[in-house]
Design goal:
CATH superfamily of the largest domain: Pseudouridine synthase I, catalytic domain, N-terminal subdomain
Order of helices and strands: EHHEEEEEEHEEHEHEEHEEEH
CATH architecture of the largest domain: 2-Layer Sandwich
EC number: 5.4.99.-
Largest sheet: 9 strands, mixed
Domain RNA-binding S4: 2-62
GO cellular component, one term: cytosol
Number of domains: 3
Number of helices: 7
Radius of gyration: 22 Å
Keywords: Isomerase, RNA-binding
Helix content: 10-25%
Distance between the termini: 28 Å
CATH class of the largest domain: Alpha Beta
Strand content: 25-35%
Enzyme class: isomerase
Number of strands: 15
CATH topology of the largest domain: Alpha-Beta Plaits
Length: 238
C-alpha cells in the first residue's frame, strides 16, 4: 500500500502539493470512487486509477535498453557533457533511471538503465560474472599470445589484475584488427587499458551484449526502448 500522492508524484503528475490540489478538485478516482484526500493509502498494482477520466498505467520500475551514442556520459548528471538520461523522453525520465554500470564517453552500444537498485547491484557485481561483450577495432595485429593474456587475466596500469576474459579474433592485419572481447567487470576504461597493457590501442569500441541481453540492432545510436517482459525475467534470473 502506498499514499495516493506518492504514486502520482512518482508517475510525474506533479509535486505532492500540486497533486493535493488536483485530488481536492475531485479529478482523481480510484476504483470508480472520487477521492478528495491525497494521503489515502491505495494498492497501485491492483487499483484502477483515473485522472480526469483517463486511466493511468502504474509501474514502480522502468527497464530500458539503449544504443548509447558517442559523446554521451553514462551518468545522471555531468557539469560539462550531455548524459544518457538527457536522451530519455519525459515519461521515462520521471522514473529517475540510472545506467547499469557505464560505457566510456566515446564508447557506443548496449547500455541498460533502470531505477531497480537491487537488479542493478546484481548485474554489476563482479562475483556474479555477468558477461559483457564488446566489438572493437585495434590499431595493430592481435594474435594467440594476446588471447592467452586475456585468458590469464591482464594486469593494467594501476597494478590491478583483471579477471580472466576472452579475446576472439575476427580479422587481424599488421596495422588493424577486428575483435570481440568478453569481460566480467566494468573498471574505468577497462578494455582500452587491457589493450594498452599489450602495447595496442582501441580505436573503436561498441558493447553488443550484456549478460543474456543483445543490442537491438534496430535502434539507432541514441535511441532506446523498454525491455520486453521476457528480457526482464531473464535478467532477474541472474
Amino acid at each position: 500500500m502506498e499514499r495516493l500522492d506518492k504514486v502520482l508524484s512518482n508517475l510525474g503528475y506533479g509535486s505532492r502539493k500540486e497533486i493535493k490540489a488536483i485530488v481536492k478538485k475531485g479529478n482523481v478516482t480510484v476504483d470508480g470512487v472520487i477521492l478528495k484526500d491525497s494521503s489515502v493509502q491505495i494498492d497501485p498494482d491492483k487499483s484502477v486509477i483515473e485522472i480526469n477520466g483517463e486511466r493511468i498505467e502504474y509501474k514502480k520500475y522502468v527497464y530500458l535498453l539503449m544504443n548509447k551514442a558517442d559523446g554521451y556520459v553514462s551518468a545522471t548528471f555531468d557539469k560539462f557533457d550531455p548524459t544518457v538520461v538527457d536522451l530519455l523522453e519525459p515519461e521515462d525520465a520521471v522514473f529517475n533511471p540510472f545506467p547499469v554500470g557505464r560505457l566510456d564517453k566515446d564508447t557506443v552500444g548496449l547500455l541498460l538503465l533502470t531505477n531497480d537498485g537491487e537488479l542493478n547491484h546484481r548485474l554489476i557485481s563482479p562475483k556474479n560474472h555477468v558477461d559483457k561483450v564488446y566489438y572493437a577495432h585495434i590499431n595493430k595485429g592481435v594474435n594467440e599470445k594476446d588471447q592467452r593474456a586475456f585468458e590469464r587475466g591482464i594486469t593494467i596500469d594501476d597494478g590491478y589484475k583483471c579477471l580472466p576474459g576472452k579475446l576472439e579474433i575476427i580479422k587481424s592485419e599488421e596495422e588493424f584488427s577486428e575483435v570481440l572481447v568478453t569481460i566480467h567487470e566494468g573498471k574505468f576504461h577497462q578494455v582500452k587499458r587491457m589493450f594498452e597493457a599489450l602495447e595496442k590501442k582501441v580505436i573503436y569500441l561498441k558493447r553488443i551484449k550484456f549478460g543474456p541481453i543483445d543490442l537491438d540492432e534496430e535502434l539507432e545510436e541514441g535511441q532506446y526502448r523498454e525491455l520486453t517482459d521476457e528480457e526482464i525475467v531473464v535478467l532477474k534470473s541472474i
